[in-house]
Amino acid sequence: MLRLRDLPGDAHFRRGARDMLAFGPGLAAWGLVTGVAMTQSGLGVGLSLLMTFTVYAGSAQLACLPLIASGAPMWVIWASAFCVNLRFVLFGAQWRPHIGHLPRGRRVVLGYLLADLNLLVFQREWKGEGHQTGQARWAAGGAVAVWIVWQSTSVAGILLASLVPLEWGLGFAGTLSMLGIAYSMLTDRTAWVAAIVSGAAAVAAFALPLKLNILVAIAAAVAATLVMTQAGKAMQSMRARSSR
Amino acid sequence: MSATLPGWAWTALVILGLGAVTLVSRNVFLWSRRELRLPEPLQRALQMAPLAAIVAITAPEIFLAHGHVIETWRDARLLAAVAATAAYAWRPGVLIPLLAGLAVYLPLRLAWGW
């Protein structure tokens, strides 16, 4: 088994790091914004540092900031973060053929470090199905590179933002970033339906206690998209039958 | 700094829990030796939940003030969101819309107090 201290010299590890560093500027800007948004939401420097080094999931961090600031119950915050992170559950399934052979300790640490961008670049760089030699080392190199860029810029953002008075309301930068993230996820009609249902439900149910409007909105959106896909399938089979 | 928060220790606990959420969600399919399979409707639901969660949290932040729908267009957050949306239509991504939104938001808020 490969020793961890041999990793930095490994060709696949280095290539993974290099491939991910090509996205360094975008990643750096994003880390900076998340750092600023955390401090400016009122978390303060200490808790923002704790958040960046433990949570390490930009969208979930941004999403939780308004919930933390409004004092929502712990389980609502965790459930909301889990919903934002559900894409990682599916990503994990996609990583599995490529890093599933690692011993569990390494698998879990690597799994924790692999974010959206890692998978995106992985799928571009490693074409073809199934496991190929060097994929786990490539993933590890990329994971370390992304971690270093993200954490250093996030910490920079946290420290810089602590110099800006909270009255400026720069915490709104987090909301504006989430707007961009949401738009980039509007890839098909089902996504549009999910977004519209969720947004309308979250606003309409805002008066619910404990910030439950968030969970109600997610449930409504998921239910709506499931009904829509089932209805779409039924329509298709009806059309197929009538054309026969 | 943390005057708006209900306590440092509570928030620290929330954050540690969020760290666990990241660890667990990224490892659901990696933890077990055996291969897990999800039924297709469940997979579809999982695909839509992140977008739904992000919109559910963002929409009230933009359209509501103190729990009520904003009734005036003279609102820094609303106009910043409009600017960010227009910027996204021009250059998709996160950064350009964010900068466009802030370019509208900060002057309105700091100079005009909207």
Oligomer: heterodimer
DSSP strand tally of chain A: 0
Q: What is the CA-atom radius of gyration of chain A, in angstroms?
A: 21 Å
Overall mean pLDDT score of chain B? 87
For the biggest sheet of chain A, the summary is: none
Query: Helix proportion of residues of chain B, in percent?
Result: 55-70%
Strand content of chain A: under 5%
Main sheet makeup of chain B? 2 strands, antiparallel
Structural class of chain A: mainly alpha
Please work out how many helical segments of chain A DSSP would assign: 10
Structural class of chain B: mainly alpha
The percent range for helix content of chain A is over 70%
CA radius of gyration of chain B: 20 Å
Write down how many β-strands of chain B occur, each being a DSSP E stretch of 2 or more residues. 2
Which short descriptors sum up this protein?
heterodimer, A: about 240 residues, mainly alpha, B: about 110 residues, two-stranded antiparallel sheet, 4 helices, about 5% strand, elongated, disordered N terminus
Structural write-up:
The complex is a heterodimer of chains A (244) and B (114). Chain A is mainly α. Chain A is built from 10 helices and no strands. Chain A is flat and about 60 Å long. Chain B is built from 4 helices and 2 strands, in the order ααββαα. A two-stranded antiparallel sheet of chain B has the order 1-2. In chain B, helix 3 packs antiparallel against helix 4. The chains are: A mainly alpha (244), B mainly alpha (114).
